[in-house]
Design a protein that fits this description.
Distance between the termini: 23 Å
Strand order of the largest sheet: 1-5-4-2-3
CATH topology: Rossmann fold
Largest sheet: 5 strands, parallel
Strand content: 15-25%
Number of helices: 5
Structural class: alpha/beta
Length: about 140
């Protein structure tokens, strides 16, 4: 299983890099003509889902850093899935109202536990610049 997790983590990293490379071709024009939220949704989002128990949370724990945030559905889930202290910020999605910090990567994880989330509001709150990347892990 470790070999599968390692391969999956490599693929996630490659997809994020590929998104950034593709985005460079559109960033100037699109960033000028679209709102930050629309640009993030249309150009700066990577959706990855190959099923449950595939290593999404482990990817975040290993590769997210102090310039990143992970959005989780509740405090209960945050305590269960991220019980230790990490360099990245853990944000309970149902509790945020504003975000002033410009994160490099915004991981949206465990989306099957969210129920109805306001994706538009999430982008409006967290999209600050055209260099950010939103990564949905396990999105249905």
């Amino acid at each position: 299983m470790k070999q599968i997790y390692n391969e999956y983590q490599r693929i996630i990293g490659d997809l994020i890099k590929l998104n950034k490379m593709i985005r460079q071709n559109y960033r100037q024009d699109a960033a000028k003509s679209l709102s930050r939220a629309t640009f993030a949704k249309e150009f700066a989002t990577v959706n990855i889902n190959i099923g449950r128990r595939t290593g999404n949370t482990e990817y975040v724990k290993i590769f997210a850093d102090e310039n990143d945030a992970v959005l989780v559905p509740s405090k209960k889930v945050a305590a269960r899935v991220y019980p230790d202290e990490y360099d990245f910020d853990i944000i309970v999605l149902r509790e945020w109202t504003q975000c002033y910090y410009e994160y490099d990567h915004i991981f949206v994880e465990l989306t099957n536990f969210f129920g109805e989330i306001n994706i538009e509001r999430m982008y409006e709150t967290f999209a600050k610049n055209p260099y950010q990347t939103f990564i949905f892990l396990g999105r249905n």
